[in-house]
Write the structure tokens for this entry.
Amino acid sequence: MTVIADIPEAPRAARRPQIGNPVLHWLRTNLFSSIPNAIITVALLAILAKGLFSFLQWGIANAVWLTPANDSSACKAARGLGACWAIIPEKYRFILFGTYPFDEQWRPALSVVLFIALFYLSARRAFWRRELVYLWIGALALISVLMWGGVFGLSFVSQDRWGGLPVTLILATFGLAFGFPLGILVALGRRSKLPAIRSLSVLYVELIRGVPLVSLLFMASVMFPLFMPAGFNIDKLLRAQIAIILFAGAYLAEVIRGGLQAVPRGQYEAADALGLSYWRKHRLVVLPQAIRHVIPPLVNTFIAFFKDTSLVLIIGIFDLLTTAKTAIIDPAWQQFSVEVYIFVAAIYFVFCFAMSRYSRSLEATATR
Amino acid sequence: MTADHPRPPPSRRFFELGRNELKGLFWQVLVVGIVLAVIVFLWSNTVTNLSARRITTGFAFLGREAGMPIADSLLSYNPRDSYLWAFVVGISNTLRVAVIGIVLATILGTLIGISRLSSNWLLSRLAAVYVETLRDIPLLLQLLFWYVLMQALPAARAAWRPVEGVFLSNRGLILPAIPVGSPQLVVLGTAALGLAAFFLIRRWLIAQQMRDGKPRPAWPFAIGLVLALPAAVSMALGVSWSIEWPQLRGFNFVGGLTLAPEYFALLIALVTYTSAFIAEIVRSGIQSVPRGQWDAASALGLRRSLMLRQIILPQALRVIVPPMTSQYLNLTKNSSLAVAIGYQDVVSVANTTLNQTGQAIEAIALIMAVFLTISLGISFFMNWYNARIALVER
């Protein structure tokens, strides 16, 4: 049985005086404090050593790191014994940027850098002011120019040739950029005193949250053409983007509603007393406070739908996961999908882990 | 607008509205008007498009022959059955993975959540690594990963046998099973009735104890009603409970219970992914119980198990249950990712239907209806449970 320790908000019981070697002391308190604990430690160490050993043997010692271009014979020889990391240098351009014209791939690469810079700046407290909106508009416009081209001497690249990491980042970021204002409107609608608006907002949120994202994406890919007048059709990527915006809007609305509920009633009354209109009251008094309250859960929601953008694989849009899956269709490399999935998982992990660390640090400063 | 002390409303006639009411009415009419206009616009487009493509509308197609294969299902199905039956089979597959997934994810998540709080440094670190890794990688990627691993398993002839009678191969996981027919169901039904009776009796015993303070043990009733009674019925009827061991015949297995690779991969992916979230919920739930409660419980001289069961858990559950509900809902909705690996859940069946008949609206309406019903069912149950464990305030 494990012993539950580490109960927070409590002064730790007076520590045992430290005697002798600090390393031994640490081992004794943290790993061998009792007999059952010692058994757990030894068992875990044994499993860990075995697992780690076979993983290192597969992933490093017996792995094939480089092969001559498009020659997988070395990998096939080592199959079952070692990993074939050689597939990554072979395929990384395709996995990261899809079928974007090879010579122009500096453009999506620069877009990815811009996205990361945008996230980084938005995460800084010093940038939490109105100018951030302009920064977003500017950065997203710049990214659109880079990706599409057609101006400033950049050749035009149609969006059905986009793929890989930029598409994942575009789906998630535009989902946030449009879903966030939508979420604010719906959250306000749900707290509105006007019954028609309130019920429409409730209907929207519950309907979207009640069904899986997959079915929304199906709707976007199959039903959208039916909804539009004959002859009018928009691109598949944009349709998926609309589905993700609607999806994100519903989830963000619920988070923002939580923030609105946390604003004390006195703030509303004070704004009313100043004679502010409904919109000015919310824009100047209520929303700035409400959103500050819910930034950590907002980041978590963003992480969730950053991961969920990978579902566009099901409707055949070339995001990072789809390009990875496509890269291993190549018969020469077909058997090495595990390596590719690990590579892509590492990319997703870096993004999500950074964001969840950030959200955790925000929570820590908020409760301090 | 939001006054604390409502003034008595000035008397006025029915149609006379104040300025604010007029403004409110204007906004509502505007928004509802826009929404209606959009709906009418989309609807009329859809009607024109459907007639242009000669797609019929309505649910009449449900009676027609489905013609789609469903490899893995609990209910008997063949491609000549109707679309309606295909949908029922799809729903049963969704429920099969969701219900078992929820149970396993709860167990695994609770274990990992408790491990994170362990005083054993190694155990708590490992649990933390598990949670962080699984939470930060998309579920679909994990699912594809498990599915690839599943396919890379040896063929049936060279299947792994971790335990005698259990086979793991690219045909999936094969377990020994007890065949359940109607005689076995009668016995299981008796056990279920016995369980219900036991709960009623326990309730009565607790009420008695409340009255006079004398503890009355309930466990003899549990043994009698849930174990002894069904055992007696089983013996009286001569029901056989022999275990059916799977055997390799030719290229495949005969007998036993087979979890197809698609089902098994989906189950593993859903359980491991969701358990990472559940672990965090359990951890924060236990941490939310103030230290004083532990101290007070030990001051009363309670045993550790009693302390956990009677003092800590009831308080932790109040924090745990509401977010747990949304995890259960997420797991159920995420089971629709089955479509990516070809497990025939309801979304997958609807997708095939849609491709075969072109009736997108009906197919997606059915998906929505099914998931809304399941979501409402889970919310209803969890709300009932939540109300049961909620703090009773005077």
Notes: Chain B has a mean pLDDT of 83. Chain B touches chain A through 66 residues (CB under 8 Å).
